[in-house]
Each structure stands twice: as C-alpha cells, then as structure tokens.
Amino acid sequence: PSITLISAPEASMDSRLANTWRPTVNEKKFIETALASNLRIDDYNRKPIEYRQLTINFGRQLVQPYRERPNEGTMSIFTEFSPMADPSFELGSPGEAAIELGRMIDRGLRGSRAVDMESLCVLAGKLVWAIRIDLHILDNGGNLIDAANVAALAALLTFRRPECSLGGENGQEVVVHPPEVKDPLPLIVHHLPIAVTFGFFSTENTMVLDPTHSEEAVMAGRMTVTVNASGGICAIQKAGGVGVPQREIMRCLRLASQRAGLITKTIKDAVEVFNKERASRKIKRHSTSVAATVSVEDGITSLREGPHRQEKSNSNAEQTSEDSDSDVVTMQEKLSSEDVKPPTLLTDLAEPEEQQTSRVKKTTKDAVKSKKARTRGERRRAPT
Amino acid sequence: MEFVNPEGLRLDGRRPMEMRQLRAEIGAVARADGSAVFEMGNTKVIAAVYGPREVQNKSQQSNDQALVRCEYTMANFSTGDRKRKPKGDRRSTEISLVIRQTMEACILTHLMPRSQIDIYVQVLQADGGTRSACINAATLALADAGIPMRDLVTSCSSGYLNSTPLLDLNYLEDSAGGPDVTVGFLPKLDRVTLLQMDAKLPVDIVENVMQLAIEGCKAIATYIREVLLENTKQLEYRRGL
C-alpha cells in the first residue's frame, strides 16, 4: 500500500529538485520482477541500443609543472552535464554525479599511469604540456561512466600534440612547431583502462552489467571496475549502496576483466579507422601559420606571437572549422562484436561541419576564458 | 623507499597486519542528537548527527523514506600545510557522496518518512585513512542519536607495498603511490557496502588486500560494539538504574 509516485516532470518544472525523474512504483516493480525472473528490458551483457554520444574536446597548453613532480605533464578532466542530456542535470557548477564521474575517470587514467606523463615534459621544472579533457554529455541513456571512459580513451589515442624543440640563445626558448612544419606527435598510452559498471538490486543476488537509465533509477547499488585488457584492476568504486557479499564482488571483478578485452579491441579498431581517415585528409590541407615562441625568463612565461596572428585568431574564431587544439571524436556506442561503425568524420560533408563548428566554438570560448597563455598553430582548412 | 624493512616492520613500527590504535568517544558535541570522535592512530575525526528532523527543503522531501545528507570537511589545520578551502572542492564532494551513500544503505530510512537526517563529519587531524575514520565516527554518532540501522558500518583501508599487503595505511604509506583499498563492511550481515581502490593491481592480489581490509573492519566492529556497550552502561548508571 505505497503511494504511487508521479513521474511527470512537466508538472513540477518550477521546483528544480523535483525534476529528478522518479519511476512510478509500477515501473519499479516491473523492472524488479522482470530481473528476478532473469529477463531484462534490453539484452543482458550488451551495451544498450540507445544511441549515446559523448564529445571530447581537447585543449592543451604549456604550463608550469606541479612542484612535487617537475618532470611530468599534467592532465585534468572536466565534466559538463548539460540539461540537454537529461532534464535532471542542471547548468552551472557540476553536481555530485558530475564530480564523481570526473574523479573516477581521473583515477582510472592517472592512478594506473595509462598515459606517460614524463614524455610531456618540455623543460624540467619549468614547462610541461597540460592536457585538458572536457567531457560533454549529450545524451544520457544510463551508465555514463563507462561511456565517458571509452570516449576519453578514444580521444587520448587520437590526440596529436605539436612538436616543440628547444632553441634560442641559452637553450631556454621553446619553439612550438605548428602541425604543417612538423607532424604532431601522439601521446604515449601504455594501456587502456576500461570501466565496467555493475548494478545491484535489493532482491537477493540480482546483478546486471551496464545498467540502463531505467535500471539506474531502480537499482540499490552500483559498482564500477576499471580494468585493462591484461587483467590488472586499475580502480574500483563502489560508493555505498546495498551490501554485497565478498564472493559476488570477486565474481564481478572477473567478469569485468573479460569484458575489458572486448571493449579494448573495439576502441582500437575505431581509432585505427579514424587515424587512417585523418592521414588521408592531411594531403588536402592548406595552411598559413606563424610559429609562436615561448620564452621563459625568471619563471615568468611570456608568449610572443607573430603580430598579425593575434588579430587573425580573433576574427577567425568563428570561421576556423577546427581549432588546432581540439579533436572532436564522436563515437556511436554499439557493442555487438561484429559491426562497429566508424566515428563520424569531421569533414565528410559541409553540413556536419557547421554543427561541429558551433560545438567547438562553445568549448573554445570556455577554454579561452580560463587560459592565460596559449600556443596555437593555426590551420585553415581547404573547403571540401 | 622501503616501507617494510627486512625484519617485517613498517615505518611506524607496526607489523603488516597490525592496525593503528583506536580510540572512540561518544557524545562530544552536546548540541547534536548524536556525536562521536574517532581516532585511528593520528587521524582524528569528529562526527555529528542531527535528526530525524523536519525536512528543510520541502521539495526534497520523500514520502516514504528519510532524506540522508552528509557533509565531509577537513579543518584547515588538519594537514601538514594549511589548506585553503576546507569544503566544496571536488575531493570533499566525492567523499561526502560516498559516506552518504554508505550510511544510507544501512539506515532504516523507511521507518522515518518525510524527515531528514544530517551527518556532518569533520577531519581534525589527517594522517591517512580519513575516509574510514569518518565512516566509523558516523556509525557511532548515528548509534548515539538512536537512529535505527540494519547493522554497524565499519571501514578500514589497506594497501600493497613492497609486495606485502598492509593494513590501515598512514599518510606516508598512502601517498607512496601504491594501491589504496578502502572497504566499508557490515559485520553481522557479512556484506561489503563500500569498496574503493586506485592504482593497478592484478585480480588475485586485490582479493588478498580486500580480505585483509575486511578483517580490519571486523576488528573495528568489535571495538565499536564495546564502546557502545560501555556508553549504555554509563547512561544507565547516570539515570540511577
């Protein structure tokens, strides 16, 4: 005899917190009983059919390294949950879920030392590359952590940073070569930590892999295991929720290791396809650019840029179809092992290029606001 | 750096399977409905519980269960260097979320609909294992407030350095860059409610390290039960029973 919760977000649009979508009791019972009889709304052990996208935008600049790690680059992860993805997300400062997501991916990547940070060092103790990963959630179909993790890995694998060399009078000047002069370098990624999420329910011993949005609303506990293909567990996060016996947890860990191999392969295949396309595009590229010189004097970093570049960058902020420091990777998530669609490419048609410009513009603006000095090579794309 | 020397002693002279000294005190904050101070070695944490009381933000009210809120803060003076922002940074938000979900799972919230339970945890001295100490302190504070729970939640951390599983890491061992496993455990029900791990480990070693942490949790549970029993005796004595 419990009260039916009305899931009608329109009715309570005015009170912000009531926007959190709660399933009706009937829906809840349906899902729970279905699970008890081993059925699922969509297939077990498969990524949900719903189309989910994550956009990763990349920014990087030369910064001063952390004091205690003068030889390593830095990596920071920012998440943005836009209400477009889910009405319960709010604009503005990230909520708990966004922070938890960011920290989990951060732990998976940083703690397991997936990316080689020392290769990002330019001048020990003075200048290192800082990588910034921006995760924008476009559509929430449940299990954001796994999807965000895959997207972050794909972006890291396809990212290219400009090559720079030391020069100048006393060997302290760093010249960043724009991509036309010298090919940009990929990041050194040692291994791929894959996040696999399990959902636990209050009925005894019910566990699902990769919960959907509806299941997430009903489930009583969740555990995310970040594991790489060679079976090393990089991170585990089970933040409270229903208690689970230890042997269940070990079972989940082993299941996760198996899944990781599959997902790693999918990512690698997709990345390879993307890289091939990118290589073939390079030939068409037409460029004007000015190298930017960065010099370090007494620890103060000043950026001397070619005089005309400054105005160009302002006026071209709208027109440049791809900012050189952002790689947009759109990945459609479908984990049926046979067909993996390649990621939508940037310059295939004129139409998507416009859409993509506006997306890039948004994040570029954000990035510009928070950055002090930037090195940028400019690339102007030949119209296709 | 050597964290376990050839004789098998750690940096502070403990054995690998030895936990730090525990100390708990109930009723430290007189104004709160329930409160406790919990110390694990040099880590000192104070928890205060207010509730069940009326929900302050009516839109968050739930008709069939109590609302549990938790706030984790670190005092400015708790760490070696003075901290700038004690709360609101990402780590504190995450830990607040984690503690809230851990306690929520064991509080019988359906017995207190339309009400709110606030848990405030503050770290006074941080020397590794603050998360665990906070959960232990919160359990004691909730018990002191008389809030019905399924079971006591105890928590302990463990790690793996110099190829040895170590129980209850202090700050130096924690910041060594090795794996750090925090487990929240329900001793009577024999269930794991909180599990966090970072840094790479193969699966079978994870099992060992997790098992060690669970043993630590069981030991803490025994201690907490003693403390609660002693506290009840004191209350009886003061009431002249």
TrEMBL record, chain A:
Residues 370-384 have a biased composition (Basic residues). Keywords: Cytoplasm, Nucleus, RNA-binding. SUPFAM superfamilies: Ribonuclease PH domain 2-like, Ribosomal protein S5 domain 2-like. One of its GO terms (biological process) is nuclear polyadenylation-dependent rRNA catabolic process. It is found in: Cytoplasm; Nucleus. Signal peptide: none annotated. GO terms for cellular component: cytoplasmic exosome (RNase complex); nuclear exosome (RNase complex). Residues 58-162, 191-258 form the Exoribonuclease phosphorolytic domain. Residues 298-384 are annotated as: Disordered. CDD domains: RNase_PH_RRP45. GO terms for molecular function: mRNA 3'-UTR AU-rich region binding. Pfam families: RNase_PH, RNase_PH_C. PANTHER family: EXOSOME COMPLEX COMPONENT RRP45 (PTHR11097:SF14), EXOSOME COMPLEX EXONUCLEASE RIBOSOMAL RNA PROCESSING PROTEIN (PTHR11097). Belongs to the RNase PH family. This is Eceriferum 7. It comes from Linum tenue.
UniProtKB/TrEMBL annotation, chain B:
One of its GO terms (cellular component) is nuclear exosome (RNase complex). It comes from Linum tenue. Pfam families: RNase_PH, RNase_PH_C. Gene3D superfamilies: GHMP Kinase, N-terminal domain. The keyword Hydrolase does not apply. It comes from the Eukaryota. This is Exosome complex component RRP41 homolog. The keyword Cytoplasm applies. Residues 18-148, 151-216 form the Exoribonuclease phosphorolytic domain. PANTHER family: EXOSOME COMPLEX COMPONENT, EXOSOME COMPLEX COMPONENT RRP41. It is found in: Cytoplasm; Nucleus, Nucleolus. SUPFAM superfamilies: Ribonuclease PH domain 2-like (SSF55666), Ribosomal protein S5 domain 2-like (SSF54211). Belongs to the RNase PH family. GO terms for biological process: nuclear mRNA surveillance; poly(A)-dependent snoRNA 3'-end processing; rRNA catabolic process; U4 snRNA 3'-end processing. Its main location: cytoplasm. Keywords: Cytoplasm, Exosome. One of its GO terms (molecular function) is RNA binding.
